[in-house]
Amino acid sequence: MMNSSGKTLTVLIGSVVVMTLLAFLALSGVAATFAWMAGGGYGSGPALCQNVTPGMGTNTPAAPSTPGGNTSPCVPASEVGARVVAWAHAMANALYVNPACGGRISYPNCYFTWYKAPGAASPPGVSPFPQAVIQYGQQICPGCSAWANGTYQCVSFVRGSYSQVYPMRLTANAFDLWAVYATQPGWREIPSASAPAGQRGIPRPGDVMVFKDASIGHAAIVMSVEMPSMTTLGAITFSNANSVSPYTTMPLLPDLTVDTAMWPGYSVWGYIRPSPWGSLHADVTTIRSDTIMSTRAQKGARHVL
After folding, report:
1. Is pLDDT above 50 for 87?
2. CA–CA separation, 107 vs 112, rounded Å?
3. Which residues touch 304 (CB under 8 Å, ≥6 apart)?
4. 21 contact partners, CB below 8 Å, separation of at least 6
């Protein structure tokens, strides 16, 4: 039988264990909260796999950088693409969900369609939406709800990201952008699910990412790309408006399609990319998937997402 001092010691030890567990759970909750802020809620967005440091820069497109001897699985952005990413980043960081939704994400009224207007105090801790992009929307589509705060749409986000760098002169519903830009001078298309495996191409940061579904589809800006290998999955991160989150990361498969399981009914049809020098073959990134797998396998395994 345990004496009174033994019982006291047992109680003390038990109390310490309980307090330790409670502290761990509290810290875990804080960590999860910060992870949400970085990935999908308020904050600066996810860490991006990108070799070119984006900057707003000037409005004049520059020649694309080349990977050269780079062995990183990160696909580099061209100078144009890096500036598009910078504007998309500034826009995505300003998006939020209507406070009346109580933090619940649901279609159609509780998606990220609101932005913090320049000079506004609320919501606190959120960056203001770029004034230049607001003015651009007012100029090309005055009074349009697709560009309005509270109903900001995915195509407006895409065109806004390009507005200060390499403006997209034509518009359409999201999926219809693929057909509209197929023959436009100064643009080229990189197939994903729209083509068989041997004809697909590698996405790059700054590309317009076109989704197909049973309705009008969706459009986004590619923020970063991590290449797959023969044994591991890659990753593609994109930003967008009128969605469940300003930033989303999906697995990039070895056959260069995107695993859209988290968005049932959607497929990534392909990517639209500036080709400012007029050649549909400039800055070519279309390679066979078996070549990608064999070359990337030589550069070391990465984690599987």
Report:
1. yes
2. 10
3. 231, 232, 233
4. none
Residue 126: pLDDT over 50:
yes
E strand or H helix that includes residue 25 = helix 4-39
Cα gap 192→188, rounded to integer Å: 13
User: What integer pLDDT is reported at residue 286 of this predicted model?
Assistant: 36
Amino acid at 43: G
Task: Work out the mean pLDDT of the chain and round it to a whole number.
Answer: 79
Q: Which residues contact 42 (CB under 8 A, 6 or more apart)?
A: 96, 123, 125, 126
DSSP 110: B
What's the rounded Cα separation, in Å, for the pair 133 and 161? 8
- How many other CB atoms are found less than 10 A from the CB of residue 172? 15
The highest-level CATH class for domain 75-297 is alpha beta
Stated pTM of the model: 0.74
Stronger pLDDT, 290 or 43, i.e. the higher one? 43
Contacts for 237 with CB less than 8 Å, ≥ 6 apart: 46, 48, 49, 222, 223, 224, 225, 247, 248, 249
In this predicted structure, the answer to whether residue 246 has a pLDDT above a threshold of 50 is: yes
Q: What is the pLDDT of residue 275?
A: 93
Between the two ends of the chain, the Cα-to-Cα distance in Å is 54
For residue 248, give the 3-state DSSP assignment: strand
Instruction: Give the pair of three-digit tokens for residue 238.
Output: 């994109």
List C-alpha distances in Å: 239 to 183, 197, 208, 278.
Answer: 25, 25, 10, 27
Where are the domains positioned within the chain? Answer: 75-297
Residue 105 confidence (pLDDT): 95
- In angstroms, rounded to a whole number, what is the distance separating the alpha carbons of residues 57 and 190? 26
150 vs 201: CA distance, rounded Å: 35
